Amino acid sequence: MGGGSDAAPRRSRHHDAVSTSTVLLVLGAFLASAVEMVEALTIVLGVGIVRGWRSTLIGVAAATIVLAALVAALGPALRVVPIETLRLVVGALLLAFGLQWLRKAILRSSGYMPHRDEDAAFRRQREQAALAGHEERAGLDWYSFTVAFKGVLLEGLEVVFIVISFGSAQNRIGLAAAGAAAAVVVVVGAGVLARGPLERVPENTIKYAVGLLLTSFGCFWGAEGVGVTWPGDELSLLGVIAFIGAVSFLLVRALRRRLALAPVEAPA
Amino acid sequence: MRYVRSFALFWWNFVVGDDWRVAAGLAVALGLTSLLTHEGVNAWWLLPVAIVLLLAGSLWRETRRAA
Q1: Residues in B touching A265 (Cβ below 8 Å)
Q2: Which helix (H) or strand (E) element contains residue A136?
Q3: Which residue segment(s) compose the domain that B58 sits in?
């Protein structure tokens, strides 16, 4: 229980005013949500346009309710965990999760992994939706409902994870959720205006930025969780971002050069 | 049983991802940082260095496999 008694002063140190980490927290939640919602939008549009909107939108609404319930239930529950323990666990998870995003973004930027093609994904989704048989359950086109539900739920789970981890470690879940919700509004609005998938969104650049933020926050909080005192306190977060950002930029350049120098296979 | 297996696999892929060595390395780095801190050394530098080494190692393995 000792950890709980000194939790309050530690919490207040980081959220008395609009600080660097608060701005980065909202930005991280917004960008992560935006990029995941672009992918979810492609799935929803592909199904809705081909098979109709009623069952598709009910699937979207059901997934949104589940995701909102997860944030509402887990957010307050994490408040009882001592802040050092929370930061260690959240930091470790964010590090593991963020490095996956950063690694994939570097592989894509350097040419070792193809970029995600929203237009191709949209065409594939439409073809599958057109070929799928019609099965009605509970008055719903079951294919449209389940594909929309699973699409939004799976893409949204990453956003929920980021909102809860970012928010709980700074005791600002509401702010992180607002950042994520703003991205949903922007992406859905853009999708309605474009009447199609948002293939022009620089997804890999956004994923790169999110991976960088997740990894840097994970490093900052993980180290704080095991008792480290950062020089310059919160300002060192910017130093961590700059350091990991610079190294990842050099890694992209090195991998590009390696790929360019790779022996080209002779035609048969 | 299949449901439990799928559930565990989903979370493994969600958190650990393609390269388990990165997750294991992070656990070791956090453990070392904790150990040094409790010995009186403020090892704030250890985790950023470990992160870039683990990232570079993981990319090296992945691109070597692709080549």
Answers
A1: none
A2: strand A136-137
A3: 18-66
Contact A106 B59 (CB under 8 A): yes
Burial class (CB in 10 A: 0-12, 13-18, 19+), A27: middle
Domains identified in chain B, total number: 1
What is the interface pTM, i.e. ipTM, of the complex? Answer: 0.91
Q: Please indicate whether, in this complex, the C-beta atoms of B33 and A228 are within 8 angstroms of each other.
A: yes
Q: What is the pLDDT of residues B19-65, one digit of tens each?
A: 899 999 999 999 999 999 999 999 999 999 999 999 999 999 989 87
SS3 sequence of A1-67: CHHHHCHHHHHHHHHCCCCHHHHHHHHHHHHHHHHHHHHHHHHHHHHHHHHCCHHHHHHHHHHHHHH
Distance from the first to the final alpha carbon of chain B: 39
pTM across the whole model: 0.81
H helix or E strand, kind and range, residue A171: none
Say how many CB pairs under 8 Å bridge A and B.
96
User: A248: which strand partners?
Assistant: none
Distance CA A196, CA A155 (A): 18
State the nearest Cα–Cα gap between A89 and chain B, in angstroms.
Answer: 11
